[in-house]
Amino acid sequence: MKKYLEAFRMNYKMQITWRFDVAMTMLSTAGQIIAAWIIWQVIFTQNTTVKGFGLGSMLSYYLISSILTSIDFTNQISGEVSDLIRNGRFSGRMVTPMNPLFFFCSMTAGKSVFHLGFCVLSAIVCAVLFQMNIALTPDPAQIIIALALIVIGLVFMACYHYTIGVLAFKFLEIGFFLHVQGSIIAFATGSFVPLSLLPENALYILRFLPFTHVVFTPAMLLCGLADAAEGLFSLAVISTWALIMFAISQYSYRHLRVKYDGVGI
């Protein structure tokens, strides 16, 4: 455990050096919130509610979802793993006494935790400057379930992206996988629009898929737009998918690494 905590600590401290990345993350958070504020201000001039959302609750959703999206750096795992494999430097991860998946998860967690405070600060500044009427739930049960969903959701995404990355053991170029799944996941998580705006049949199906519970459900819970019962169902779904994805990632690594002939360390 200490070695993974050390990887977490080192990557956390490394972010202090990369100040430009911090600034870009804050701008990204602010950009998503401002874009949502502009678009929905126009829409709500002609509508008082949209699918049960008022302007305040809609902006609250985007504020929270923008934070969750900005601190999710798990997509970098697939790119880093595939680059290390193609360049012959993944051997270094294979000979060290650390599970590669846990190592990359620890590094990503350090980066996410460091950027969290700056993303929250950026969101608060936007809310104050644009006088957004932000509504957050006072229910501790909803808050606790939402936080659990966020953590387990990030674990699932880390396992998912790691699995995509190790496909480089078998395929020379996985750019196609990275490009296609990126846009689909961004939509399926609810980063673009709240999924409750979709038809009921589509939303019912998405409830049983993992991506819905990475951003959409936690944001809805924190906004008070979903109850604890729905949160518990989501927690069961994402936990099951996280275990399945972990098993797949470990199987893929053990099965495909025998095809690796990289020599760099």
Helix/strand-derived category reads mainly alpha
Taking pLDDT < 50 over at least 5 consecutive residues as the criterion, the unreliable ranges are none
What value does the Rg take, in angstroms?
19 Å
Give the N-to-C terminal Cα separation: 23 Å
What's the SSE pattern?
A: HHHHHHHHHHH
Strands, count: 0
Number of helical segments with 4 or more residues: 11
How can the largest sheet be summarized? none
How much strand?
under 5%
Helix content: over 70%
Kindly state the mean pLDDT as a whole number? 86
* Cα shape: globular
- How many structurally independent domains? 1
Q: How would you describe this structure in keywords?
A:
265 residues, mainly alpha
Brief summary:
This protein is mainly α and 265 residues long.
Helix and strand layout, with pairings?
Layout: H1 2-17, H2 19-43, H3 55-70, H4 75-86, H5 91-95, H6 100-129, H7 140-166, H8 175-188, H9 200-206, H10 216-222, H11 228-256
Helix pairs in contact: 1-6, 2-3, 2-6, 3-6, 3-10, 4-7, 6-7, 7-10, 7-11
Would you kindly provide a written description of the structure presented here, covering whatever features stand out?
The chain has 265 residues and is mainly alpha-helical. The chain has eleven helices and no strands. It has helices spanning 2-17, 19-43, 55-70, 75-86, 91-95, 100-129, 140-166, 175-188, 200-206, 216-222, 228-256. The protein starts with a helix and ends in a 9-residue tail after the last helix.
